[in-house]
TrEMBL record:
Domain 4Fe-4S Mo/W bis-MGD-type, residue spans: 1-47
Key words of the record: 4Fe-4S, Iron, Iron-sulfur, Metal-binding, Oxidoreductase
Record organism: Acidiphilium iwatense
Name of the featured protein: Molybdopterin-dependent oxidoreductase
Domain of life from the UniProt record: Bacteria
Coiled coil stretches, renumbered: none
């Protein structure tokens, strides 16, 4: 059975068969290759501790009883306080069909924008920046660009650990064509170790570096003025602002690096959470896009900016309006014509007219009582959101909380109704990877007990709330066809997102569907090669971004950088079950630079207290030569379920990008002190 790996946004194809789970040799994302997480997928098919029956108030219930309660309590809250008194918080682990139904119910029929997703923590800054620059949330490039580039920059990305199969393509390009690899990161990560050059910036220094590169390329005569004149707007203001930027690195190194950029037309800039999870995430992405627009390096083989996605379906969620700030099919809340298109297509007279609450604001609204009923699915915000103590308090205060998940979590333990969800290997649908490639995910074993797919739960509740006519789906194929039809509805080519012929696909074709890239039906999979952008005048926009963001390093405080480990995924509900994966790092630790360790009198293995005004964690210290002085690295994976006193996210604050709402997980402030010597 051909299906797709459920972990990172590379979206590798896998084959589940008698011999276990192996890489799919025909999938274009990976051509049979898998990383260690993919090769151990078979070991995660373990139903111990699964949620297998609906629960109401801690008591087992039937599906009809549970669904009736959910529909009734949501209906009552809406009747008493209006549609904005309810919310859904969903997940990049959702399949596109799950996302489509949840979004249609909330925005189309309940009439509120209050559906957000844990992709807010991951992708919101690139989404906002791409809409500003291109007019639509579009990643221009494809994976083949990594094979064809002469220079690849990994910015705020430990791709060697977090997107291993794609990183291996970059390494192969180095072997075959001499591609140079540069890592731009405050940490000397595994990617930096393998790169030809590591540029160690200060945390948050990437915006200034890219703005300064833009100005330097202008000074070197390396800009594409023909492209700028014919296909862009806003150049002068953006360049004037870029001239004010200080690159923040050694002057000689900066000159050498700028020469490298100026002299290499085939340039790919791949960026990830180090860029996105910042109070300047959106502006930083625009600084990267500005450089590519100014040099005309976009939409060409081996050239383009490339936003790496974290979860397997971060892109699919964006296609169907999984973020509170978007409508389905790349339609926009800001455009009344777009709202009308969607209202007509869905026959939804009460379509939401304004964006809903973004993740952090949404849980603030739960905490202060504005949200009266909340449905959380496929995610564990009690451990994964910043200020986890406040999130837990919010869940306890909320009059009605529903949680749908596969395993019990710190979130489900605070729910009034728990719904058992079918997981990877048990449910059908589609996902879209970082390069806009739609792949089928297929069930190859039955769900345990009474577990059901998420789309079915939302559909059943929609029917009980009186919206049955609009939710008469019999299968994921019927949902996918509607999703595809919406992408073509009244689309005269102004919107790039287009699934065209898939709208008429019979069930049999959906069953055997092979990976397919959108916009469907175009011969050239790269976007913008013709210099046309989906803005009103067809031109891309430079965005004037200021490098003056006022990052202050408070005395005696460390910058807390949270991130991923090679062999773990999110809060370890699956990977934590595989001894082989646990062997890489057996327990949580706080890594500091040798100079800081010497100053604080800390040795590897000492117990240290890391804390701030939100709380304190006691963890073993690790001294890492990879760590920049003044910063601490802690993995985001460990939770109470895996022997940690709490989650590192109890220390993360509410600071977020003002445009995208993405939390600044890379820039917390903490103190550290030794409490017990080894
Ligand atoms: Fe899965 Fe990502 Fe590894 Fe591919 S690179 S096998 S998608 S975790």
């Amino acid at each position: 059975m051909n299906t797709t790996c459920p972990y990172c946004g590379v979206g590798c194809g896998v084959v589940a068969g008698r011999d276990g789970i192996v890489g799919d040799p025909d999938h274009p994302a990976n051509r049979g290759k898998l990383c260690v997480k993919g090769t151990t997928l078979g070991l995660t098919l373990d139903d111990r501790d699964r949620l297998v029956a609906p629960m109401i108030g801690g008591q087992q219930a039937s599906w009809p009883e549970a669904l009736d309660v959910v529909a009734k309590r949501f209906g009552e809250a809406i009747a008493e306080r209006g549609p904005d008194s309810v919310a859904f918080y969903v997940s990049g682990q959702f399949l596109t069909e799950d996302y489509y139904i949840a979004n249609k119910l909330m925005k189309g029929f309940i009439g509120s924008g209050n559906i957000d997703t844990n992709s807010r923590l991951c992708m919101a800054s690139p989404v906002a920046a791409q809409i500003r620059a291109f007019g639509e949330d579009l990643v221009p490039g494809i994976y083949e660009d990594f094979d064809e580039a002469d220079l690849i920059l990994f910015v705020g990305s430990n791709a060697a650990w977090c997107h291993p199969v794609l990183f291996q393509r970059a390494l192969r390009a180095r072997e075959s064509r001499g591609t140079r690899i540069v890592a731009i990161d405050p940490r000397r990560s595994a990617t930096a170790d393998l790169a030809d050059l590591h540029i160690q910036i200060a945390p948050g220094g990437d915006l200034a570096l890219f703005a300064a590169l833009f100005a330097k390329c202008a000074a070197k005569g390396a800009l594409d003025y023909d492209f700028i004149a014919r296909h862009t707007a806003g150049f002068d203001a953006a360049l004037a602002m870029a001239h004010q930027a200080d690159p923040g690195i050694d002057a000689e190194l900066f000159d050498q690096f700028a020469d490298m950029i100026a002299g290499t037309p085939r340039l790919v800039t791949a960026f990830f959470q180090g860029v996105n999870q910042s109070v300047i995430g959106t502006d930083t992405v625009n600084a990267i896009l500005n450089l590519h627009l100014a040099t005309g390096r976009i939409g060409k083989p081996g050239a383009g900016p490339f936003s790496l996605t974290g979860q397997p379906n971060a892109m699919g969620g964006r296609e169907v309006g999984g973020l509170a700030t978007q409508l389905a099919a790349h339609l926009s809340f800001d455009d009344s014509a777009h709202r009308d298109i969607l209202a007509r297509f869905w026959n939804a007279p009460h379509l939401a007219r304004k964006p809903g609450l973004k993740a952090i604001d949404l849980f603030d609204a739960v905490h202060d009582g504005r949200i009266k009923a909340l449905w959380i699915a496929g995610t564990n915000p009690a451990e994964s959101l910043p200020r986890s103590a406040l999130v837990r308090e919010a869940l306890e205060r909320c009059p009605f909380v529903v949680v749908a998940d596969c395993w019990p979590t710190a979130t489900s333990s605070r729910a009034d109704v728990v719904l058992p969800a079918a997981g990877w290997s048990e449910k059908d649908g589609t996902v879209t990877n970082s390069e806009r490639m739609i792949s089928r995910q297929r069930a190859f074993r039955p769900a345990p007990g009474e577990a059901k797919p998420d789309w079915w739960m939302f559909k059943e509740v929609a029917c009980r709330m009186g919206f049955g006519e609009a939710f008469a789906y019999s299968s994921t194929a019927s949902i996918f066809r509607e999703h595809a039809a919406l992408s073509t509805f009244e689309n005269d080519g102004a919107r790039v997102f287009d699934l065209g012929p898939l709208a008429a696909m019979p069930d049999e074709d959906y069953d055997v569907m092979r990976p397919i890239q959108w916009p469907v039906g175009r011969a050239e999979p790269r976007l913008f090669g013709d210099g046309r952008f989906p803005t009103a005048d067809g031109r891309a926009r430079f965005v004037a971004v200021s490098a003056e963001h006022g990052a202050v390093d408070e005395e005696k405080k460390f910058t807390l950088n949270t991130g991923r480990l090679r062999d773990q995924w999110h809060t370890m509900t699956r990977t934590g079950r595989v001894p082989e994966l646990m062997a890489h790092r057996e327990a949580a630790a706080a890594t500091i630079a040798p100079a800081d360790a010497a100053r604080l009198g800390i040795a590897t293995g000492d117990l240290a207290a890391i804390g701030n005004e939100r709380g304190q964690l006691i963890l073993p210290a690790m001294i890492g030569a990879d760590q920049a002085s003044g910063s601490i690295f802690m993995a985001m994976h460990w939770t109470e379920a895996h022997g940690s006193a709490s989650t590192v996210n109890m220390l993360a604050g509410a600071e977020r990008d003002p445009i995208s709402g993405e939390p600044a997980f890379k820039h917390g402030k903490v103190t550290m002190r030794r409490i017990v010597a080894q």
